[in-house]
Amino acid sequence: MIQLSELPVSYGKIHLPAKVALVVTQKPESGYNLITIEWFMRTSLTPPMFAISIGKTRYSHECLEANRYFNLVFPSLKMKPLLTLCGSNSGRDMDKFAVGKVEYIAGKLHKLPVLKDAVACFECEIATQIRSGDHTIYIGEVHYSWENPEEKLFYFQEGIETKPL
Ligand SMILES: Cc1cc2nc3c(=O)[nH]c(=O)nc-3n(C[C@H](O)[C@H](O)[C@H](O)COP(=O)(O)O)c2cc1C
Predict the structure, then answer these.
(1) Reported pTM
(2) Domain chopping of the chain, boundaries
(3) Measuring CA to CA, which residue among 121, 125, 122 is closest to residue 140?
(4) Which of 34, 45, 93, 113 would bridge 86 by S-S if both were Cys, CB 3.0 to 4.6 A apart?
(5) What is the tens place of the pLDDT at every residue in 106-115?
(6) How far is the CA of 2 from the centre of ligand 1 (A)?
(7) Which atom number of ligand 1 is nearest to the Cα of residue 34?
């Protein structure tokens, strides 16, 4: 029978299994940053749009306030170590592209990196944003999309376990 539960506990429990993604942003000065995210969704077909929810304390938040575009990267199975790296370190302290030895080509919108190992990558320009508690939801219009049919999508099953779709 369904019953009332402790809110923080049930809120934390309902998220798995989950897709995860990487967001590439441009740093305020120069260079690029990567963040692992789980809170994202498609929000429009025409034009195609994605929403991403970024914590206000994240360096990526600073980057998105400075440069109004991002690449949403759907990771392949081989990118698991990079997801861990980018989800547990801040771009304030580390160049994640250098440490993760990330291979990429320049995108078409603002030359933001398109990761070579990704399953798909969407080049987005921020159209609007919404405050959501301690996060900001950035809604980006997709201008270019890339895909790699040879790779399989990574997603979180239990904790950090993965299975191909
Ligand atoms: C699986 C996973 C999912 C995450 N999802 C989000 C998310 O949706 N939004 C967010 O702001 N941070 C999320 N994080 C936390 C950030 O990835 C983490 O704080 C990161 O170090 C921030 O990097 P930055 O300071 O370079 O932006 C997630 C972390 C992991 C491991």
Answers:
(1) 0.94
(2) 19-156
(3) 125
(4) 34
(5) 999 999 999 9
(6) 31
(7) 26
